[in-house]
Amino acid sequence: MKEMLHWLDKRVQLTPESLAVETVSGEVITYRELREKAQDFAGKIKVHYSKKLTGQVAILAENSLDMVVAILGCTYLDCPLVLLNTKLSKKEWQYQVEDADVSLVICDSIYEEAVAEVTSDKVAVVCTSEIEKLSVVKTQFKTHIELSDVATLMYTSGTTGKAKAVEQSFENHWWSAISSALNLGIDTKDKWLVSLPLYHISGLSSLFKSLIYGMPILLMEKFDATFVHNAIMTKEVSIISVVSLTCKRLLEELGDDNYPSTFRCMLLGGGPAPLSLLEEAKEKQVPIFQTYGMTETCSQISTLAPTDAMDKIGSAGKPLFPAELEIRGKDGVLEPLTVGEIVVKGPMVALGYHNNSIATKESFRSNWLYTGDLGYVDNDGFLYVVDRRKDLIVSGGENVYPAEIENILLTHPLIKEAGVTGVPDEKWGSVPVAFVVSSQAINKKELEKFCKEKLATFKTPKDFCFVEALPRNATNKLVRHRLQELYLER
């Protein structure tokens, strides 16, 4: 077994009085104070809820210092931590609690009643404020982390069926942090602004990086473009993770201004980014580094290096050290510039899916993860992500990529957001339709003409739906399958 000193204990050994977490409300906490709170929290759970530690512990909470304490406190207990998405329905919480063998749910008070309604008597539900009131009892904690142990269970979006619980080991999280550092480097003045949920891999990975790097995080409950902009400009934030929508909003906030030299990295993930957005960022000299990763890879596994950011615009870079990446088709590895399935390998790739051997065997084969994403590598080995395989539209035998159509739509001066999905068609099997958020009314015929000038006829949307907002998940990623449902419900 490979082990190392608990990450929080080691960080306290090295920099006990350094800032660990800062919140929007002005709360600040050092690593020494954070360990004390985390161990107090763990002690209360271990002593007062010992009979409920027969299974996993789940956390259902919004970003806060209390959630940070709860997450790190649970790493001192001998059970994996299940991170539940606050945006899900009660039925989805029920399914995940049962599927992950959860025996104790720790939640914000606003969720306590709802969770209690859908969990069995075998599951204890307790809110963080109740735990705060419990007496502190001195007890023994594990001092070392077994790297092969499952650290967290995190559910995938479940857009093609039941959500799957990804088993992420401490080793997966460790190598995710180290690989990122080997690519982006570590600066002693780094501060990572975390606006993505801690129950999402992008948010959680930033928390673990904080311990491993000794890097403070500025924690937000949710994304707010004005606050993030001001934080970059005045609070010496150096790194932030974004998706296309939040990146676009930040560029709007920036206007004709420039970010200070302290801001060195905007990690852009969450799927293919519109070329128009990347060109705008380049023009404004915003340090965007496209990245590719997923829950199963414990965050990024391929990222554009700083030295290539301006020359390989649109690329998600090369696989991080020591990861590997291939593009495969039915007959094996494909030649450069050929679209196929992105397949990855490395120590940051998760162990598999909890209680789902069939899905594990399907996606994890001979140490390779078959991602279900489509992309290609250029002649220099740089990855370009095209789309999700499940979002691919096959129309009359032709492959249609929704992201390509969305990119074209977003070049229209009146369109703020665009989402494309496929719907059944008697003649062609499936045809693309577009959902559009616009600043003012647009004639459908004019929009069709706009697309036909830039796209093949079979790629041009057969209908346009004008909406006030597109369906998005907790990280502001477009949920395309919901578009199809909305269209068919009309």
From TrEMBL:
Reactions this protein catalyses: 2-succinylbenzoate + ATP + CoA = 2-succinylbenzoyl-CoA + AMP + diphosphate
AMP-binding enzyme C-terminal domain segment(s): 404-477
Gene Ontology biological process terms in this record: fatty acid metabolic process; menaquinone biosynthetic process
Name of this protein: 2-succinylbenzoate--CoA ligase
UniProt keyword list: ATP-binding, Ligase, Menaquinone biosynthesis, Nucleotide-binding
InterPro entries associated with the record: AMP-bd_C (IPR025110), AMP-bd_C_sf (IPR045851), AMP-binding_CS (IPR020845), AMP-dep_synth/lig_dom (IPR000873), ANL_N_sf (IPR042099), MenE (IPR010192)
Pfam name, any one: AMP-binding
PROSITE patterns: AMP_BINDING (PS00455)
Protein family membership: Belongs to the ATP-dependent AMP-binding enzyme family. MenE subfamily.
GO function term, MF aspect, one: o-succinylbenzoate-CoA ligase activity
Top-rank taxon: Bacteria
Enzyme superclass (EC): ligase
Annotated function: Converts 2-succinylbenzoate (OSB) to 2-succinylbenzoyl-CoA (OSB-CoA).
